[in-house]
Write a structure and sequence with these properties.
By secondary structure, the protein is mainly β. It contains one helix and four strands; from the N terminus they run ββββα. It has a single domain, classed as Ribosomal protein L28/L24 (Ribosomal Protein L24e, Chain: T). The longest helix is centred in the last third of the chain and has 5 residues.
């Protein structure tokens, strides 16, 4: 599945990880582990901006949300 924008966190740069799906017969096919990214409006240098931020950064209050 093609995605138009990079699925990385705006704050920490966390991106997708890669691994394998394993079937019952242990046949490996490649898969992608996407980070839990949320679209949030933040204040950046006085301007409101909509960016993707991972939930870990949101929970740690690493971004200032725009009201």
């Amino acid at each position: 599945m093609l995605r138009p924008m990079a699925r990385v966190c705006h704050t920490c740069g966390k991106g997708p990880g890669f691994g394998n799906n394993r079937s019952h017969s242990m046949v490996a096919t490649r898969r992608r582990f996407d980070p839990n990214l949320q679209k949030v409006r933040i204040l950046e240098s006085g301007a409101k901006k909509r960016v993707l931020v991972c939930t870990r950064c949101l929970k740690a209050n690493k971004v200032v949300k725009a009201g």
